Amino acid sequence: MTEPVVAPGRARGGRRDEILTTFTRHVAGRGYDRANFGDVAAELGMSKGTIVHHFGTKDRMLAEVQERYMRRRLDEAHAFLARLPAPEDRIAAFVHAGVRYSTDEPETTVAFQREVVRLTDEPGMETARAQRDAYRDLVVAVLAEGEESGAFLPGDARLRSLQMFGSLHWMWTWFDPRGRLAPGIVAAEFCRTLLRGLGVGEEALARAADPDGPVARCVADVCVSAPGSGGAAGGRPRR
Fold first, then answer.
1. Considering just the CA atoms, what is the radius of gyration of the chain in Å?
2. End-to-end CA distance of the chain
3. What does pTM read for this prediction?
4. More confident residue, 99 or 2
5. Relative to the CA of 114, which of 17, 66, 103, 202 has its CA 20 to 30 Å away?
6. Which domains does the chain have, with CATH numbers?
7. Residues 128, 212: contact at Cβ < 8 Å?
8. pLDDT in tens, 125-159
9. Where are the alpha helices (DSSP H) in the chain?
């Protein structure tokens, strides 16, 4: 008996998620260009046609990976921003969260980060691109508000946000959560470097950067409780 055709983008329960999880792992491990329906289908013991029924095209699958990922990131950001009023704590929260993603969702995070350039102008990525821009705008707003309040030194908020994202988005090329440096230590070091550059005093900086402090605990609580947390699969992707 053949499976019923399901329009691309429509939910169909566990099997559809299993396909997307496997595809995500392949993208994380070898990149989008080398990931293909045939390998995903062979691993799952199904036909390539079944995958086409669920998703339509490979481009659509990647877009869904990016959209799901950014939807969770936006939900988490709004949650921790609501709990943390101080601008230095808010910026530190973005950093703590960025490092946690590599630990909690290694494969979805690597898949997103190594293919993020496709959000620039490729057709079909409009939703994910808008989500990415909305996340960036949250960071820019916190940086601008911190400058206006006197918490941060004067500077270009947009440029500072790009500097921050540049350091976090390339973590997939070198960071192993099970390696020499624990995730909390990496996040703390990033926070100290960033916040000192913004002119934050040592006492506030120490609180915001502390891997066991209130900001890190808030981020951990938000990321654990967020719908869909846990990612597509665990473990370190092979490259």
1. 19
2. 38
3. 0.85
4. 99
5. 17
6. 14-56 (1.10.10.60), 66-225 (1.10.357.10)
7. no
8. 899 999 999 999 999 999 999 999 999 999 999 99
9. 14-30, 37-44, 48-55, 58-83, 87-104, 106-114, 126-149, 157-169, 183-197, 202-209, 214-225
